[in-house]
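Here is this case:
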Amino acid sequence: MSALGALTLAGCGGGGPTTPQVDVQVPQALLDEAASLRGGSVGMLSQKLYSETANQALDKSLQAFAQATGTTISNDLVSGDAGDMVAKMHAEVEANTTRDLAFVSDVRFVGQLHNLGDLTDVTDVVESMRGLYGEPAAEAKNYCVFDGRWFAIPYHFIGTGMYLRKDWYEEKGLPIKPYYSWEELRDNALEVSDPAKRRFGWGLTVNRSGDANGFIANVINCYGGALADNTGTKVVFNSPETVEAVTFIGDIYTNPKYQPMLPPGVGSWTDSSNNENWLAQILGLTLNQYSVYADSKTKNNPVYANTHPFNGATGPAIDKPIAFGQSNSFVVFKGAKNPDLAKVVAKFMVGGSALLGVAKGAPCLVNPAWEKVWDSDPYYTSGDPAFAALREQTRVQLPISTKTGYSFPQAPSPGEQAATAAYLLTDMMQSVIQGTKPADAVAATHARMVQVFEQQGYKQ
């Protein structure tokens, strides 16, 4: 069994939701490019999408390509939060048992994989795709490029979002706005809460999860703190701004004043918990990828019509949300048995009918990562009111700077990615909830981050 065999893998396909009816066609140009590769095979690893329908549509696209080109593609799904995915991928590369390609979150994993020397330069592929699809999402140019070379191919864009119950806000006379400050969101959450009616205004956890990592980091950044400096090489976590942010977050979960707005069990939530509670219509606010929005739409949940999606919150150090999303991006591993075929598969999957079926299976969660793909089908322009805001996230002017001098997105940092993956932020907040003073918790977490960065080769 390969190293990744220890993770929870599942073949695509099977029962469950119906795959959207999209006639998947392989463009002639890609058929011509794959002609000399007929008979070849590719092993692929996919970061599991929240929507099972989208996972099935992805497999349908892969098999349509395989049938049209006379090739074989095997695909496994893996959760990005299941085990130490980077270490296991690296072990496969070193053991020469690696799959040919995978798609993973560029923000979370590409920097670490590149730092370990596991990725193939794919600049030639990206440059040829520019001719087909225009420019990729702005954030991808930060997270997929190292020393001027591309080591990941943007696949589909995942917007960042916050969601509030606009009907609850309207009942209380609270304004519906493009964004709010974190303090406004806290106060509004308390205002709309009514435990007797199973209305809990604050649907955010600080328990170990990707959503909690994103929440904590965003508040810290909005208050003027950061994990690392703009080069991504030096830990700068222990600052007055970070302490102020951690104090703000900790107060929400420890001050009796805010208890009425906290849903039962929020202290033990995982990544799926806020989705489930939002769909159960008991939350007034949550932060999530658009998975929860997609689910409410595809399942005809009444909460969809009462959802106000917005791009995020502000804080003392910035007057606009730090929102630029991320991409799931294809990487081709060193030691791949068939890298040429892997690159053609990646080219095929990012656009046209191959992406359309996946996008319809996860509406607003899976979006084009390339400019011209947005204009390739009416679905992307008129399929949902949220598409306009999502497209704007792909082309936002970067970097976004705070008053304290930090610019986001920062340089890709294997140290920061590893520190985030180790849940240092959530562990810090748990210690605060248990009684540790915020300043002490921040100092202790800074020391742990220094260790992680040094393990990644960055002397502090």
